Amino acid sequence: MGNCVTSRSQIVRGFLFFVCLWAILCATAPTSGQQKTSITVSAAISLKDALDELGHTYEQRHPGTKVTFNYGSSGTLQHQIEQGAPVDIFLSAAEKQMDALESGGLLVAGTRRDLAGNQLVLVVPASSNIAKDFSDLARPEVKIVALGEPGTVPAGMYARQTLEQLGMLAAVEKKVVYAKDVRAVLTYVETGNADAGIVYQTDACTSSKARIAATAPAATHDPIAYPAAVIRTTKNITAARAFLEFLESADARALFERYGFTPAEKQAGKK
Amino acid sequence: MDWSPLWISLATTLAATAITLIAGLAAAAWRERRTGPMMALVDGIFLLPLVLPPTVVGFLLLLLLGRNGPVGKLLLRFGTTVVFSWPATVIAAAVVAFPLMYLTARAALEQVDPHYLQAARTLGASEWRVFREVALPLAWPGVLAGTILSFARALGEFGATLLLAGNIPGKTETIPIAIYFAVEANDLKGAAIWCAVDIGLSLALLAGLYHWTHAQGQGPGRIRLSRR
Q1: Nearest residue of A to residue B84 by CA position?
Q2: Could you list the residue range(s) of the whole structural domain that residue B8 is in?
Q3: Is residue B112 part of a domain?
Q4: Residue B199 included in any domain
Q5: I want to staple A77 with a disulfide (CB 3.0 to 4.6 A). Which of A42, A138, B33, B116 is the partner?
Q6: Minimal Cα distance from B172: which residue of A?
Q7: In a domain, A21, yes or no
Q8: Region B121-150: what's the mean pLDDT?
Q9: Residue B186 C-alpha, separation from nearest chain A C-alpha, in angstroms
Q10: Is residue A68 part of a domain?
Q11: What CA–CA distance (Å, rounded) separates B92 from B42?
């Protein structure tokens, strides 16, 4: 019994020690003089490399604003926002997810716009010659084809449309491994664990271990668009609007294009 | 409703439990008779999958068994791959369940009174026979507990399975993976159904265990040397 008491007080002491440590760390953490505005951007993971750079640039130009990115599949991010995630801006890889939020009344009216477009490509491991075109996916040597899970990953949805249009869906479906986002598809191909995969051109450009085998004809799938909007529950509407405007600036557009994005199709029609 | 995740989960769990039972018992029996500084390291390695996050286990297995991994390359030479196939679900589940089997089996074997083993040896029994007919029956309740723990752990395996076996409906999509992707796709009804199935399975397992222990009568196993 005596033993038991000692060990319990040791646990309590250990716990208190960590509480103190935590308090000290919090107190000594560097705090900037003026209050920084922080905005959280939930963005389709295919935008990752371009947005990381844009966020960095923006923070340098606006030292008072801190931009935090939350990347994932557009469907996952959409559901997070629907469940009340504290997000200021949503950047989707397809209209579908943004439509869902808009009809749910979760967007700030008038802030929705298309930022960029993209192309859908077939990738194979860099050293592989297994497929030169989408039709090769039916060949028996191609055993595993990676696609995004079509319910949540727009790239997977577009890929399904293309395969269906090309009459390949039945032949490919038995070989498909579904990934949780488009970058996971790319990883499956890069590591050689999948023989081929369907991703965006911009994803393929980020990789030296995967190679583009073919580009899907634009007519075989819905136009790929990246709509963006401010989320209704935002606490920093001014900062959120300002960042969204920056993403539409000439500088940002040039950067998107440098990463392989195409200009937004609807842009000309708007305004 | 596609019920394939249920059958895949059951097949995977049964296969993984069988592998774990044999491997865990063999490892425990092998380890029990050894001492020395190296054994601490061996224990650490055997128990690592229990303390590591399943994603780490899955990642390491992927590095090892992937097409560019050392074992994966070897398998490729024989014309097969493990990653993204049904055996991958079994491997992932067996690896994460192994420490539970190993731990309980070792504890059970250590409880066996060495005098019985010595007695069997003096009567001329081979080491294998001593293990099979004396040590194992005496350690059986513990071994069974380990088997059930392993079964439960294998049934719930998610992280390593997703990394190693991916999500292939009808092939590697187990119940936990079906739940994850249903929630991701906001298919709350599908997720709820699979959760109910999982709870039902687990309750049945626990109820079965309860009845079994009561039917057996409590206390350590009786000595039942086969008459031969």
Answers
A1: A177
A2: 4-216
A3: yes
A4: yes
A5: A42
A6: A177
A7: no
A8: 92
A9: 7
A10: yes
A11: 20
Give yes or no: residues A246 and A189 share one domain. Answer: no
Query: Which chain A residues have a beta carbon less than 8 Å from that of B185?
Result: 75, 149, 151-152
Across the interface, which of A144, A188, A191 has its CB nearest the CB of B68? Answer: A191
- Is residue B188 less than 8 Å (CB to CB) from chain A? no
Helix, strand and coil percent figures for chain B, each rounded to 5: 75, 0, 25
> What 3-state DSSP class applies to B34?
coil
| CA–CA dist A158, A73 (Å, integer) | 13
Range A157-161 average pLDDT: 97
Cα B4 to chain center, whole Å? 22
User: Of the candidates A143, A152, A194, which has its C-beta nearest B185's C-beta?
Assistant: A152
Task: Report the chain B residue with the minimal C-alpha distance to residue A76.
Answer: B184
ipTM of the complex: 0.72
Answer whether residue B195 is part of any domain.
yes
Give residue-wise pLDDT tens across range A8-42. Answer: 666 666 666 666 566 665 555 555 445 788 999 99
Supply the range of the domain harboring residue A132.
120-220
Beta strands in A156-237 (DSSP E): 176-179, 196-200, 210-215, 225-230
How many domains would you assign to chain B? Answer: 1
Q: List the one residue out of A253, A192, A187 whose CA is nearest residue A50.
A: A253
Other C-beta atoms lying within 10 Å of the C-beta of residue B204: 10
CATH number (domain holding residue B135): 1.10.3720.10
At which residue do the structure tokens 């780490």 appear? B56
The verdict on pTM exceeding 0.80 is: no
For chain A, what's the residue count? 271
What pLDDT is recorded for position A38?
A: 92
Instruction: Kindly report the CATH number assigned to the domain that includes residue A200.
Output: 3.40.190.10
- Mind telling me how many Å the CA of A97 is from chain B's nearest CA? 11
Q: Using CB atoms within 10 A of its CB, is residue B23 exposed (0-12), middle (13-18) or buried (19+)?
A: middle
- B98 domain residue, yes or no: yes
Q: Looking at the structure, tell me whether residues A250 and A183 fall in a common domain.
A: no
Whether A6 maps to a domain, the answer reads no
A96: contact with B, CB 8 A cutoff: no
| Inter-chain residue contact A75 with B184, CB threshold 8 Å | yes
Shortest alpha-carbon distance between residue A86 and chain B (Å)? 18
Tell me the shortest Cα–Cα distance from A150 to chain B, in angstroms. 9
